[in-house]
Design brief:
The chain is α/β, with parallel strands linked by helices. It contains 7 helices and 9 strands. α4 links the parallel β4 and β5.
């Protein structure tokens, strides 16, 4: 099976991912975007291990001046965990004041899938310096929504910090905000129609990714 290629990444960080099997290869995965690949970044494997995610969040916070960041914002679900850990590490380096951690969530209404600040978190954004955190960047679409949300509420975007950039997402893709990612992976992905694994009848992975939903849709289409 053709596999993705890895750019020059810190071996220590790559080992942290490898230790918990957070990068899975040699299978047939379906991403949320609908594209197929033989490599999957299993971010959920990281969240099982508090020591690992704490260390990675420390590295995510490292490039930023602690006193400069007022609020860390993460999109649900993984971003909630990261916002807490990153803010905690920033607070350990602050000389005064406190860095807060909040999260953005999508509306419960099926017609409203845009991110919003609920629970009164919008009160902590205006005129504040904001760092947005995310686990995996694929297209940058979700993070771009959060950046736009921050700006609508009067926040000043300082940067975006991510565990992994697997989609070659650039600042222009996320509202011209600087991006810092711990690792970058250049993965070969395919549309459903061009996917060589589909053509070779390689079984779809139904444990990781969106394989189960993909197969259910295929079955429904075949029966219609």
């Amino acid at each position: 099976m053709e596999q993705g290629t890895t750019r020059k990444n810190d071996p220590m960080i790559m080992q942290l991912f490898a230790n918990v099997n957070a990068i899975v290869e040699d299978s047939h995965f379906v991403y949320s975007s609908g594209r197929h690949s033989s490599v999957y970044v299993n971010k959920d494997a990281l969240y099982l291990h508090t020591g690992v995610i704490a260390r990675l969040a420390q590295l995510m916070a490292q490039p930023y001046q602690a006193d400069q960041i007022d609020v860390v914002v993460g999109p649900v679900i993984g971003g909630v965990i990261l916002s807490q850990w990153v803010a905690s590490h920033l607070n350990q380096r602050r000389t005064s004041g406190e860095t807060l951690a909040v999260f953005a969530e999508k509306g419960s209404d099926s017609l409203d899938k845009q991110f919003a600040f609920n629970r009164g978190y919008d009160r902590y954004i205006a005129d504040k310096n904001i760092l947005v955190v995310e686990d995996v960047l694929t297209t940058g679409g979700s993070v771009h929504q959060v950046v736009d949300l921050v700006r609508r509420h009067g926040g000043n975007m300082i940067g975006i910090s991510a565990l992994c950039n697997r989609g070659n997402v650039q600042p222009k893709d996320v509202g011209d905000v600087p991006i810092h990612s711990l690792i970058e992976l250049s993965l070969q992905t395919y549309s459903e129609t061009e996917c060589p694994f589909c053509q070779q009848d390689v079984p779809v992975n139904t444990v990781l990714g969106k394989g189960r939903a993909f197969l259910a849709r295929q079955k429904a289409q075949a029966q219609s």
